[in-house]
């Protein structure tokens, strides 16, 4: 970016999960992202930090938002971006993840962005390739750039996270967004609450550094941030909740339930939203919603992450 | 007839409750003497004498749960390659699971296994036949004819029979032919998409969990049916305290019930999964440390009768995948004794009890020869240095598949020589 040499060197080669990051690592990425926001808001959005570098997006799960966000981030940094569309590739013909990884690796990319339906897929890929790997979501495990963009959105609106109460509501069980957020928010000292019916809570949730609540009124009380999760119906093995109607009645965010939160509390959603299932339209489009900001911060965070991972000072250090 | 004398050995023979220094004399295919008394018998002329000072002689292990790829999956393991691995691990007899392709559910397949074993294997191979045709859980196989052909037990291998009616009839019918019904229990509905033990660790990894109840609910059903039918039932691989308690209760009710545990569930726990290590994806899954300790207690108090390797060869294609997509199973023939001896070395189990669960008890349970060093018994035995440390390395593995949970593990206790029917089939 303009001048990144004043920033500390980011110590990791991959971004596989929030678990691997220290609070300082997280703050560093957020600081970098703040600068990326400024660039994205200029009319000249293109920089040359990653000029000549190759970025491959390998998405095993359909994703409009995340894939285009990574693509745009790469392009704004000047990288050559290639999207591997899994639907029309050899993966459909039964090629394994590792074989695909080896093939792509032979094309000598500098960074691989992977989304996969299986937990641990990004880590497996990272073991087999010579470039940096960014986890863009692996099963129900982690989605680190989502947690970072959420943190950036919150920090820019509310200041340091350490004094804030954040309520994460909905399908915690299947959510990689929830896991990454729980870790990140705890690392930065926020108080984390989760609100969900018990069938959508993972085993051992009470030991995950959160306060568990089964009612929105209780869980949202005094919260600075309300984070809604998508009710991932396509992932459900069985009926975790009896009906959409009942779910919305007890766990969908509407104006009435939002009143329990602090005045001016942020309403967030990682998207894509099911309007009328987990969130009422009036709230999603209302004054407290920062859902559009989250999308903007997404591009900035991904720029920051890729720039940090491919910091040219790292190579200088190596050759010296 | 050749004679071999093993002198000054620590003789561990659970069939007679013996753990003493003495001499073992093998003549031809049989043991003619083993014990303190044999010390003074002198050495017959022309005998080979092996000085076993500081070493132990144990009856060869009888591994009652071994999956082999022949027929149908010879790239993973053949009967011959499994037998070589077994011999190196001090295992002299294998009960082979029917999960082959085609399934061992008819007389021709039992005969194929026995014939192939006779021609290619260096240890004893005893086929177990399927309880239901094609392991599909519906129609019973021909228990009578299969027994006559040489099937030593009935099991649906990795599969759990979901129908209580089928299980009831199998237990009832098998009783007439003296066949034990050995069953792994995991309720498919409750386990659902689960791939590891349910709990905090699985939750952080984002992996679907298998609750303990998935094992104990069908097990409780089976135990109730064993009480009802008075059939011989073997809970093949239990992994949880609640399952052990269920077995204890059934035994107290005089039901004809026994239980086994895989060595993995005695030596490892869910934390060993680490960062999605697929070699540690097993069925039943590695459980919490409390469960592991409960399994040791259950072996100690006799609730669990036998320890098995549950040797399950998987190749690279089925293991080099994301955790949830990888096949379950790990090999174990070569490490069974070494891993089990950890329980002896750290004081969890006395040696005599340990060897009993690995040899004498499975012989008795499935009506197999071996498991004993008493005079007249087949000379199936292993000479072991109980204290010698060694490190498991992939390159040293004889099995055709390398999916071991003990890669790099430090084990104490090494097999020096293995005899099957008096013939040396392995020597270090």
Automatic annotation (TrEMBL), chain A:
Residues involved in L-aspartate binding: 93, 176, 230
Catalysed reaction equations from the record: carbamoyl phosphate + L-aspartate = N-carbamoyl-L-aspartate + phosphate + H(+)
GO terms of molecular function: amino acid binding; aspartate carbamoyltransferase activity
Annotated residues for binding of carbamoyl phosphate: 65-66, 115, 143, 146, 271-272
Alphabetic keyword roster: Pyrimidine biosynthesis, Transferase
Alphabetized PROSITE patterns for the sequence: CARBAMOYLTRANSFERASE
Top-rank lineage group of the source organism: Bacteria
Presence of keyword Zinc-finger: no
Record-level GO BP terms: 'de novo' pyrimidine nucleobase biosynthetic process; 'de novo' UMP biosynthetic process; amino acid metabolic process
Record EC number: 2.1.3.2
GO CC, any one term: cytosol
Pathway linked to the protein: Pyrimidine metabolism; UMP biosynthesis via de novo pathway; (S)-dihydroorotate from bicarbonate: step 2/3
Domain Aspartate/ornithine carbamoyltransferase Asp/Orn-binding: 164-308
Domain Aspartate/ornithine carbamoyltransferase carbamoyl-P binding: 13-155
Record's function text: Catalyzes the condensation of carbamoyl phosphate and aspartate to form carbamoyl aspartate and inorganic phosphate, the committed step in the de novo pyrimidine nucleotide biosynthesis pathway. Reversibly catalyzes the transfer of the carbamoyl group from carbamoyl phosphate (CP) to the N(epsilon) atom of ornithine (ORN) to produce L-citrulline.
HAMAP family the UniProt entry points to: Asp_carb_tr (MF_00001)
SUBUNIT field: Heterododecamer (2C3:3R2) of six catalytic PyrB chains organized as two trimers (C3), and six regulatory PyrI chains organized as three dimers (R2).
Similarity comment: Belongs to the aspartate/ornithine carbamoyltransferase superfamily. ATCase family.
PANTHER family with a match to the protein in the record: ASPARTATE CARBAMOYLTRANSFERASE (PTHR45753:SF6), ORNITHINE CARBAMOYLTRANSFERASE, MITOCHONDRIAL (PTHR45753)
UniProt protein name: Aspartate carbamoyltransferase
Organism: Mesorhizobium neociceri
Taxonomic path: Bacteria, Pseudomonadati, Pseudomonadota, Alphaproteobacteria, Hyphomicrobiales
TrEMBL record, chain B:
Domain Dihydroorotase catalytic: 54-240
Keyword Signal included in the entry's annotation: no
GO cellular component: cytoplasm
Signal peptide (UniProt feature, chain positions): none
Any single Pfam family the record assigns to this protein: Amidohydro_3
Entry's EC annotation: 3.5.2.3
Record-level Gene Ontology MF annotations: allantoinase activity; dihydroorotase activity; metal ion binding
Record's protein name: Dihydroorotase
Lineage of the organism: Bacteria, Pseudomonadati, Pseudomonadota, Alphaproteobacteria, Hyphomicrobiales
């Amino acid at each position: 970016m303009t001048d990144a040499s004043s920033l500390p060197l980011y110590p990791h080669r991959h971004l596989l999960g929030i678990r691997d990051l220290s609070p300082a690592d997280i703050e560093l990425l957020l600081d970098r992202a703040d600068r990326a926001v400024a660039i994205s808001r200029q009319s000249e959005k293109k920089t040359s930090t990653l000029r000549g570098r190759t970025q491959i997006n390998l998405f095993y799960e359909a994703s409009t938002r995340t894939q285009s966000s990574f693509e745009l981030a790469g392009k704004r940094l000047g990288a050559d971006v290639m999207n591997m569309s899994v639907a029309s590739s050899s993966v459909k013909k039964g090629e394994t993840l590792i074989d695909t990884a080896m093939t792509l690796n032979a094309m000598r990319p500098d960074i691989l962005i992977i989304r996969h339906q299986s937990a641990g897929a990004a880590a497996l890929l990272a073991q087999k390739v010579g470039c940096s790997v960014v986890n863009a979501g692996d099963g129900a495990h982690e989605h680190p750039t989502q947690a970072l963009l959420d943190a950036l959105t919150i920090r820019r609106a509310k200041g340091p996270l350490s004094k804030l109460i954040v309520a994460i509501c909905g399908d915690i069980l299947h959510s990689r967004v929830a896991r990454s957020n729980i870790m990140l928010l705890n690392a930065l000292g926020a108080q984390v609450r989760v609100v969900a019916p018990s069938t959508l809570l993972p085993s051992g949730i009470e030991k995950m550094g959160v306060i568990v609540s089964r009612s929105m009124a209780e869980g949202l009380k005094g919260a600075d941030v309300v984070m809604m999760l998508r009710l991932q119906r396509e992932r459900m093995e069985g009926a975790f909740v009896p009906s959409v109607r009942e779910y919305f009645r007890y766990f969908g965010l509407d104006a009435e339930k939002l009143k329990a939160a602090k005045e001016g509390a942020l309403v967030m959603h990682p998207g894509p939203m099911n309007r009328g299932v987990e969130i009422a339209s009036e709230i999603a489009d209302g004054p407290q919603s920062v859902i559009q900001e989250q999308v903007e911060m997404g591009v900035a965070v991904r720029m920051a992450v890729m720039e940090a991972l491919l910091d040219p000072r790292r190579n200088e250090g190596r050759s010296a | 007839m050749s004679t071999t004398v093993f002198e000054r050995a620590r003789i561990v023979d659970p069939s007679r409750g013996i753990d003493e220094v003495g001499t073992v004399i093998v003549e031809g295919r049989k043991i003619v003497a083993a014990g303190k008394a044999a010390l003074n018998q002198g050495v017959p002329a022309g005998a080979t004498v092996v000085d076993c000072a500081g070493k132990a002689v144990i009856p060869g292990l009888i591994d009652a749960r071994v999956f082999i790829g022949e027929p149908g999956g010879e790239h993973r393991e053949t009967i011959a390659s499994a037998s070589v691995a077994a011999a190196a691990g001090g295992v002299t007899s294998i009960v082979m699971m029917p999960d082959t392709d085609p399934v061992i559910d008819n007389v021709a397949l039992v005969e194929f296994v026995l014939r192939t074993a006779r021609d290619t294997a260096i240890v004893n191979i005893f086929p177990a036949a399927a309880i239901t045709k094609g392991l599909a859980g519906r129609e019973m196989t021909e228990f009578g004819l299969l027994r006559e052909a040489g099937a030593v037990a009935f099991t649906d291998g990795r599969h759990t029979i979901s129908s209580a009616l089928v299980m009831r009839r199998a237990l009832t019918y098998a009783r007439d032919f003296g066949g034990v019904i050995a069953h792994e229990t995991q309720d498919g509905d409750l386990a659902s998409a689960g791939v590891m033990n349910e709990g905090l660790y699985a939750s952080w990894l984002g992996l679907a969990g298998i609750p303990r109840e998935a094992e104990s609910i069908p097990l409780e059903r089976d135990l109730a049916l064993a009480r009802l039918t008075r059939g011989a039932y073997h809970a093949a691989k239990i992994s949880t305290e609640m399952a052990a308690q269920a077995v204890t209760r059934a035994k107290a009710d005089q039901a004809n019930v026994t239980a086994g545990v895989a060595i993995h569930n005695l030596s490892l726990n869910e934390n060993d999964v680490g960062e999605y290590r697929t070699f540690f994806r097993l069925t039943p899954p590695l459980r919490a440390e409390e469960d592991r300790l409960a399994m040791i207690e259950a072996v100690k108090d006799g609730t669990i009768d036998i320890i098995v390797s549950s040797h399950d060869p998987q190749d690279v294609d089925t293991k080099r995948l994301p955790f949830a997509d990888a096949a379950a199973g790990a090999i174990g023939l070569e490490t069974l004794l070494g891993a089990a001896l950890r329980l002896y070395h750290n004081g969890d189990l006395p040696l005599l009890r340990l060897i009993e669960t690995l040899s004498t008890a499975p012989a008795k349970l499935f009506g197999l020869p071996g498991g004993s060093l008493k005079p007249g018994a087949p000379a199936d035995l292993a000479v072991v240095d109980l204290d010698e440390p060694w490190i498991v390395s992939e390159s040293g593995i004889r099995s055709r598949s390398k999916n071991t949970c003990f890669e790099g593990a430090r084990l104490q206790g090494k097999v020096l020589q293995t005899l099957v029917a008096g013939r040396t089939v392995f020597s270090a």
